[in-house]
From TrEMBL:
Biological classification of the source: Bacteria, Pseudomonadati, Pseudomonadota, Gammaproteobacteria, Alteromonadales
Keyword tRNA processing: yes
Alphabetically ordered keywords of this record: Transferase, tRNA processing
Catalytic activity of the protein: carboxy-S-adenosyl-L-methionine + 5-hydroxyuridine(34) in tRNA = 5-carboxymethoxyuridine(34) in tRNA + S-adenosyl-L-homocysteine + H(+)
Function comment: Catalyzes carboxymethyl transfer from carboxy-S-adenosyl-L-methionine (Cx-SAM) to 5-hydroxyuridine (ho5U) to form 5-carboxymethoxyuridine (cmo5U) at position 34 in tRNAs.
Family under the similarity heading: Belongs to the class I-like SAM-binding methyltransferase superfamily. CmoB family.
Source organism of the structure: Shewanella corallii
The EC number(s) this enzyme carries: 2.5.1.-
Keyword Transcription regulation included in the entry's annotation: no
SUPFAM superfamilies tied to this protein: S-adenosyl-L-methionine-dependent methyltransferases
Family matches, as InterPro entries: CmoB (IPR010017), Mo5U34_MeTrfas-like (IPR027555), SAM-dependent_MTases_sf (IPR029063)
NCBIfam families: PRK15068.1, tRNA 5-methoxyuridine(34)/uridine 5-oxyacetic acid(34) synthase CmoB
Protein name (database record): tRNA U34 carboxymethyltransferase
Gene: cmoB
């Protein structure tokens, strides 16, 4: 069974220590009640990841663990087969002992778009909401973050993250908790909060923005990346049914509307730093994610539209600051 004891130990003397009053009970409930049928199989994979501690780890320029020279061809094949049991791998890529995990998303491209616009992460305590398998968390650590906590309710993402962490072989200050943000008590403890690819999945986007604010220190920085549509401050698409074959997309605002939402929630210095149309090269089917991907969600006769006829995915990155109570 996946244990969170190292997380409890690390936060005991930190500004997250108040979580010790509630988090063991919350995570204990998850451990008892998680019913995903594949979890025992995935946990067996984690228990078999007994490979040499890598001589080389690069989290600054990529997520690279080892070079492959430490493993025999047989060990490398065994490792690839074990990691393959954890498919589909959606966020990445990862380079593990010479194995290239070519994920559905080129999450490194998103990181390269975001990084130049945010406050330096060195010595910061960071929350990554909807972190997926943790790719961006490793890159945050590579930028010198003091502590990174990610939350995502997916058991598969947790196991993928744990696989990478166990292969690195270090008790690093980075943790993934299988929770949603609504399960976190307001903490006002994080220097930076990331929410990338989450807002449009929330039934109440304003509540989500307020929940993000509740986790930030005064003057803390929010990095928000989400799907948007063209339009003015009053424009927001509410799909009738599905959007890009997804049935859990609720609200797609325009950039001006999203900025207004954030300002209404008492964020200040709100600015859009990037707008980018998702390309077929950034999200696609691969060996490690063999299911449908972006090309299958677009109109084959007009890739500027989804199969439902909506504007094709366009993503914006917004940076904002939590307004201190005395401003």
């Amino acid at each position: 069974m996946i244990s969170f004891s190292s997380f409890y130990k690390q936060i005991a003397d930190s500004n997250l220590q108040h979580w010790l009053e509630t988090m063991p009970s919350i995570l204990g409930d998850w451990q008892r009640e998680n019913k995903h049928g594949n979890l025992p199989k995935w946990e067996k994979v984690l228990n078999k990841l007994n490979f040499p501690k890598p001589e080389h780890v690069d989290l600054k320029n990529s997520v690279t663990v080892g070079t492959g020279d430490q493993l025999t061809p047989g060990e490398q094949e065994k490792l690839k087969n074990l990691l393959g049991i954890l498919k589909p791998w959606r966020k990445g890529p990862f380079h593990i002992h010479g194995i290239h995990i070519d994920t559905e998303w080129r999450s490194d491209w998103k990181w390269d778009r975001v990084l130049p616009h945010i406050s330096p992460l060195k010595y910061r305590t960071i929350l990554d909401v909807g972190c997926g398998s943790g790719y961006h968390m490793w890159r945050m650590l590579g930028e010198g973050a003091e502590r990174v906590v990610g939350i995502d309710p997916s058991a598969l993402f947790l196991c993928q993250f744990e696989a990478v962490k166990r292969l690195i072989g270090e008790d690093l200050p980075v943790h993934l908790l299988p929770l949603g943000i609504e399960q976190l008590p307001p903490l006002d403890a994080f220097d930076t909060v990331f929410s990338m690819g989450v807002l449009y999945h929330r039934r109440s986007p304003i509540d989500h923005l307020l929940q993000l604010k509740d986790q930030l220190k005064n003057n803390g920085e929010l990095v928000l990346e989400t799907l948007v549509v063209d339009g003015d401050e009053n424009t927001c698409l509410v799909p009738a049914d599905r959007y890009g074959k997804m049935n859990n997309v609720w609200y797609l605002p325009s950039v001006p509307a999203l900025i207004r939402w954030l300002e209404k929630c008492d964020f200040v210095d709100v600015r859009c730093v990037n707008v980018d149309v998702t390309s077929l090269a950034e999200q696609r089917t691969t060996e490690w994610m063999p299911n449908e991907s972006l090309v299958d969600y677009l109109d084959p006769q007009d890739i500027t539209r989804t199969v439902e006829g909506y504007q094709a995915p366009k993503r914006a990155t917004i940076i904002a600051r939590k307004k201190p109570t005395n401003e």
